[in-house]
Write a structure and sequence with these properties.
The protein has about 450 residues and is an alpha+beta fold. Helices cover about 50% and strands about 10% of the residues. The protein is built from 17 helices and 12 strands. The strands form 4 sheets. A 5-stranded mixed sheet has the order 1-3-2-4-5, with helices on both faces. It has a 3-stranded antiparallel sheet with strand order 8-9-12. It has a two-stranded antiparallel ribbon with strand order 6-7. The relative contact order is 0.09.
């Protein structure tokens, strides 16, 4: 029997409509029910293309025994973070305060008044990955709620004070003036965690940090600040060469799981496409670099082909997995490439895109205990990318890939992310002299 989520419209909530968990959508009635039963609320927040959300659903929320525990111990609420960013932001802040980290799926236990006291992200069904099993957590929560309510109240009160402090920071002791020296200082501090070996900023997992790239380009354009050119170009080149870029389709995956931009987390989000397309278009204009223009066009053409509604608005995201296999649609072996291109062209393509260097990807939930057994494409020979013969090989492989089962497309239309894409298309249309982007 479907649960209450069957009446929702969010693709993420509908993915959970047949769980044995007695899910509630976010609503006053759910909290009223928790007060009536005198039980805590369990809040699970995620989104439709979140890989680890799918893993937790399969392992935990579809587990009949754990679902019975959840239904007995809590009122269980499921939220799509893209529908309710306000709920997500509030409880993510609490999760980060309680645990020192955040992410999705977000798992929060709270009082019937909505006050959190225990939180985390993904939990396995049993003790695993250095994390406690969810069944054991439920037992501990039920015991604490029954026998140690006072300790929960202390946690709630302490956390409430911290959240209030974060929400209402003390004002500065004197007026802040954003003059040129201060702006240059802020740019320098923001770029201080540059990775000189692999490009980018910070370590693994490595995110594209689009707003920082925009800042460096803005400082260059408006302040004449060129001291960071080498860092900027190294990062743009590394991302364009690495596995985070979908070299056949043109878009970018969400982030790199390693420091060297090789193995991506395979979700494709609209906001990344929008911001990265804008960054590469601006870089193409400022550096007069055709390669960056080519990357920007690849991203925008991908969005117009695959993430655009018939009315012109833009869809939200592509999933990270196909049939529970992470990256299933995007991976290749040398033999698969040869089956499409033939032995001569395959030998060339495999050298250009790194397949001749050995396998580089293993599904973390796959059956192979011997390590990597397939390949993420990356540009081992970037200078060959624009070769017409290589471009033709990419087209043939993309056509073959289109015959595979495709990842889920979340067709929600989010106003804020659409705003980012509209900006990117307008800017790129102007900078790259592409009227069709301005029209879109």
């Amino acid at each position: 029997m479907p649960n209450r989520l069957a009446a929702e419209t969010s693709p993420y909530l509908l993915q959970h409509q047949h769980n044995p968990v007695d899910w509630w959508p976010w609503s006053p009635e759910a909290f009223d029910e928790a007060r009536r039963r005198d039980v805590p609320v369990f809040l699970s927040v995620g989104y439709s293309t979140c890989y680890w959300c799918h893993v937790m659903e399969r392992e935990v929320f579809e587990n009949e025994v754990i679902a019975q525990q959840m239904n007995a111990a809590c009122v269980n609420i499921k939220v799509d973070r893209e529908e309710r960013p306000d709920v997500d932001e509030h409880y993510m802040t609490a999760t980060q305060v309680l645990t020192g980290q955040g992410g999705w799926p977000m798992s929060v236990f709270m009082t019937p008044e909505g006050q959190p006291f225990f939180a985390g992200t993904y939990f396995p069904p049993d003790d695993h990955y250095g994390r406690p099993g969810f069944g054991r957590i439920l037992e501990a929560i039920a015991e604490a709620w029954r026998d140690r309510r006072g300790e929960i109240a202390q946690t709630v009160e302490g956390l409430r004070g911290i959240l209030r402090q974060l929400a209402e920071p003390n004002p500065p002791s004197e007026d802040v003036t954003f003059d040129e020296p201060r702006l240059r200082s802020l740019v320098s501090v923001s770029a201080a965690d540059y990775d000189p070996r692999f490009g980018g900023f910070g370590g693994a997992p490595k995110f594209p940090r689009e707003t920082l790239l925009e800042l460096l380009l803005s400082a260059r354009r408006h302040l004449g600040e060129t001291a960071f050119d080498a860092r900027l170009r190294h990062t743009l080149d590394a991302m364009a060469n690495g596995g985070m870029r979908d070299h056949l389709g043109g878009g970018f995956h969400r982030y790199s799981t390693d420091a060297k931009w090789l193995v991506p987390h395979f979700e494709i989000m609209l906001y990344d496409q929008a911001m990265l397309a804008g960054v590469y278009a601006d870089a193409a204009s400022q550096f007069q670099h055709e390669r960056y223009a080519r990357v920007a066009r690849g991203v925008l053409d991908f969005v117009l082909r695959h993430m655009t509604d018939s009315g012109g608005a833009f869809y939200t995201a592509f999933d990270a997995e196909v049939d529970a296999k992470e990256g299933g649609n995007y991976l290749w072996t040398p033999a698969e490439v040869e089956a499409v291109l033939g032995p001569d062209d395959a030998a060339v393509f495999n050298a250009v895109y790194g397949l001749d260097q050995g396998f580089n990807f293993a599904d973390p939930h796959g059956p192979n205990p011997n390590g990597p057994d397939t390949n993420v494409l990356f540009l081992a020979q970037p200078d060959r990318e624009a070769d017409p013969a290589i471009a033709d090989m990419r087209r043939r492989l993309l056509a073959a890939r289109a015959t595979r089962k495709q990842p889920l497309l979340d067709t929600k239309i989010l106003t804020s992310w659409n705003g980012l894409m509209i900006r990117a298309l307008a800017d790129a249309g102007r900078l790259l002299n592409e009227p069709r982007y301005i029209s879109a």
